[in-house]
Each structure stands twice: as C-alpha cells, then as structure tokens.
Design a protein that fits this description.
- The chain is mainly alpha-helical and about 140 residues long.
- The chain has two helices and no strands.
- Helix 1 (about 10-55) runs antiparallel to helix 2 (about 65-140).
- It starts with 8 loop residues before the first helix and ends with a helix.
C-alpha cells in the first residue's frame, strides 16, 4: 500500500514560514514599545531629578541663570515626553496591527493542518478497509 502524501504540504510549509515571520515582526514591534516605555521612564526620572535639583538650589542665594536653565531644560523634557508619548501610541497601534496579522497567519496555518489531519484520517480509514478486504479474501480462500 502506498504511503500517505499530503498534496498541500508546500502550502502548509509556506503558512508555517509566514507565521514565524509574523511572530518575529510582532516581537520586534513589542520590543520597540518596551524601549519607548523605558525612554519615557528615563525622561520622567530626569524630570524628577531636575525638580529635586531646583528645590535644593532654593536654599541660600537664588541664581537666576540656573533657574532659567533648569526651566528651559524642564520645558524640553516635557516636549520630549509629549513627543515620546505620541510615538508610543503609534508603536502600540503598529504592534496591535502586527498581532492581528499574526493571528490571521496562525488561523490560516491551522486550517491547512486541520485539512491534513482529516485527509490523514481518511487515508488511514481507507487503508484499514483495504486490509480488512484482503484478510476477508484470505479467510475465504483458506
């Protein structure tokens, strides 16, 4: 009896490859989101340090040039934080889009695997039926 051969095996391999590629894309997008969150956290920490520095400078004589420099620095940090937050939102949308593509690729792969399982079961059933016929014929002959 011949061996089971799945005609759509090349397509299944392509689906596997596509799914793996989309997993890599999704992981890279998640990594970008994490890096951006870390960057925003660093900006927040830097802002807190600057506030603390300003508070410490309020004791004793007040130096206006230091206060102005710290104020300009805080404005820049706030602008960077707002820009970074918008970038983070965009990265999160892109990550969600890539996640949906990954889910779609996974579904497509599962469809072909399920079809393979059904064809394998049908083939096995036909083999069993063929074997039973042969055994019946042998029983009748002997």
């Amino acid at each position: 009896m011949k061996k089971f051969r799945y005609r759509l095996e090349p397509i299944l391999k392509i689906r596997h490859h596509t799914e793996k590629q989309r997993q890599k894309d999704h992981a890279a997008a998640l990594q970008q989101v994490c890096r951006q969150k870390e960057h925003l956290s660093e900006l927040d920490t830097e802002r807190e340090r600057t506030f603390e520095f300003q508070r410490s400078q309020l004791e004793g004589p007040i130096r206006t040039h230091q206060l102005l420099a710290a104020s300009r620095y805080l404005v820049r940090l706030k602008r960077d934080t707002m820009t970074g937050t918008e970038l983070l939102k965009g990265l999160e949308r892109e990550t969600e889009r890539k996640r949906l593509l990954l889910v779609q690729a996974s579904k497509e792969r599962k469809i072909y695997e399920k079809l393979r399982e059904r064809q394998q079961a049908k083939f096995n059933q036909e083999v069993e039926q063929h074997d039973r016929k042969e055994l019946d014929e042998l029983a009748v002959v002997t």
